[in-house]
Specification:
Organism: Carnegiea gigantea
Number of domains: 3
InterPro entries: At1g61320/At1g61330-like, F-box-like_dom_sf, F-box_AtFBL13-like, F-box_dom, LRR_At1g61320_AtMIF1, LRR_dom_sf
Strand order of the largest sheet: 3-4-5-6-7-9-11-13-14-15-16-17-18-21
Protein name: F-box domain-containing protein
Strand content: 25-35%
Number of helices: 12
Keywords: Signal
Pfam families: F-box, LRR_At1g61320_AtMIF1
Largest sheet: 14 strands, parallel
Number of strands: 21
Shape: globular
């Protein structure tokens, strides 16, 4: 069987009683002489070495492997490769389908996906073939239970029945993690109406109703009642991710329930989401990327990690009262947005008395002044790590961002906090430019953070007139700080 696969090398390492043994199966491409040439000058070597595919016994060595070894080998391959490997041996033909956590269908890994940019007709043909392939797999597998079922295929409503078939399959197989990602990759345009997923009430009696612990939905059309049906009929759900969902007009989503086991909730740019109420006794992590949502945290007694991105993050900074009910219990806070003008507005910081990690991300040429940052740090008395990300890459003529940071007023002693900090030991800055504002921030933290041990700087990437990346100037300015920092502080320039 191996002679069918030129240059096929398979290594299996087994650990038994602390000792390793190795089984190596190899088929050489040169075991048959090229056309037009005489046979191998050492014909006896082929017949005497069965590992080279000789015909001494024509023995199928792969079939002699135990089921555990075969399943381990297949688990290291992706879905397509494992299915193709089934031709290696009759015993392998259906074993790939027995892998408990193996259903991962990602159309974007297929070469034909690139056809979408120049040949829509051929792309549609290949997409239909791939959908039929997935349906065939889920219709023929003998597996009784599966751990993970993931689909990443940009589909429109023409494939409604196929998607429902896949979901029905996963729910009938006691799936633990279900991910449906129908989004169109960045840079491509996907037309057609969004797919809908039926309410999960129909799965109330299915095996997965109690087994499903993780649900991720991307680029689907849903409604508020749909989310209610998810939370009501999946009592053991611990992770819920909703991204780019179409929720209608000013949809109202409630994540409420005294018996909810939900621990991780992530909502990213869901269109039409107007109001969100959260009351979850076991929720420990919440991520929101959005803009105009009205979010109310009614009861989140153990919530300790939150991340806000987009316009909502700016709204939050101007009204921290929204999270004042649980700010004192947070261990990690992440805010990412375009923060223009916040340094000129009075900010009332709540108590972050348990906060150990603070991450601030700045987009599109905005900046944060030293007065704002110093008072933010001061509101976090046990802060251990502070990370500031200036997520912008400078191109030709993009000088406004540089000028804003150069002109940032960093010497307003009346508003800059001068209180010493007794816990901060690591400061990291991504997008270090080396202007006065950047330098003053680093030196301020080194001065007032009495236990500061490390400063990590990532120089800002710039582009020259030819579009080539350069970072030498920012890097050199970062290194100049070495002699200005206290001896106790280690400087890393990455």
């Amino acid at each position: 069987m191996l002679r069918c696969f030129p240059t096929f090398t398979l290594i299996v390492i087994l650990l038994s009683d602390g000792e390793f043994s190795q089984l190596r199966l190899r088929s050489k491409e040169n075991q048959y002489p090229p056309k037009g040439k005489k046979g191998n000058s050492h014909p006896s070597s082929l017949s005497s070495d069965p590992m080279r595919g000789g015909s001494i016994n024509n023995k199928d060595l792969i079939s002699s492997l135990s089921d555990d070894i075969v399943l381990h080998i297949l688990s290291l391959l992706d879905q397509k490769e494992a299915a193709r490997a089934s031709v290696l041996s009759k015993r392998w033909r259906h074993m790939w389908a027995l892998l408990p956590d193996f259903y991962n269908f990602d159309a974007l890994k297929m070469l034909w996906w690139r056809l979408k940019s120049y040949d829509d007709q051929q792309y549609d043909t290949e997409l239909r073939k791939y959908v039929r392939y997935v349906t065939q797999i889920v219709s023929s597998t003998p597996a009784q239970n599966i751990n993970i079922f993931r689909v990443r295929i940009p589909l429109d409503r023409n494939y409604q029945d196929d998607l429902q078939t896949w979901v029905n399959f996963a729910m009938a197989k006691s799936v633990k993690e279900l991910e449906l990602n129908l989004s169109c990759p960045e840079g491509f345009i996907c037309e057609g109406k969004r797919l809908r997923v039926g309410p999960f009430g129909c799965y109330a009696q299915s095996p997965a109703a109690k087994s499903l612990v993780s649900l991720s939905l991307t680029a689907l059309e849903v409604s508020g009642p749909f989310i209610d049906s998810v939370l009501l009929n999946l009592p053991n759900l611990e992770l819920l991710t909703m991204s780019e969902l179409y929720c209608g007009v000013k949809s109202y989503i409630r994540v409420i329930g005294s018996s909810l086991k939900l621990r991780y909730l992530e909502i990213s740019y869901c269109h039409g989401l107007g109001k969100l109420d959260i009351s979850a006794g076991n929720l420990i992590s919440f991520v929101l990327r959005g803009s105009e949502e009205d979010v109310k945290f009614n009861s989140v007694p153990v919530l300790n990690e939150v991340s806000f991105e987009g316009i909502y993050a700016v709204r939050l900074i101007h009204n921290f009262q929204t999270i004042s009910g649980f700010s004192s219990q947070l261990n990690k806070l992440t805010l990412t947005s375009v923060f223009k003008g916040i340094s000129h507005s009075p900010i009332e910081f709540p108590s972050f008395r348990k906060l150990k990690q603070l991450e601030l991300g700045i987009w599109n040429g905005s900046y944060m002044s030293l007065p704002f940052l110093s008072n933010f740090i001061d509101a976090c008395p046990v802060l251990n790590k502070f990370k500031l990300q200036c997520m912008m890459r400078l191109g030709i003529g993009e000088t406004q961002f540089v000028n804003e940071r150069l002109e940032a007023n960093v010497n307003r002693a009346d508003t800059v906090s001068s209180k010493p900090h007794h816990h901060l030991n690591t400061f990291e800055m991504v997008g270090f430019l080396g202007c006065k504002a950047d330098t003053e921030l680093v030196l301020y933290i080194a001065q007032f953070a009495l236990l500061l041990e490390k400063v990590i700087l990532h120089p800002l990437l710039e582009e020259d007139d030819f579009g080539l990346t350069k970072e030498a100037s920012s890097r050199e300015r970062a290194k100049l700080l070495r002699n200005q920092l206290p001896p106790r502080v280690q400087l890393e320039v990455l």
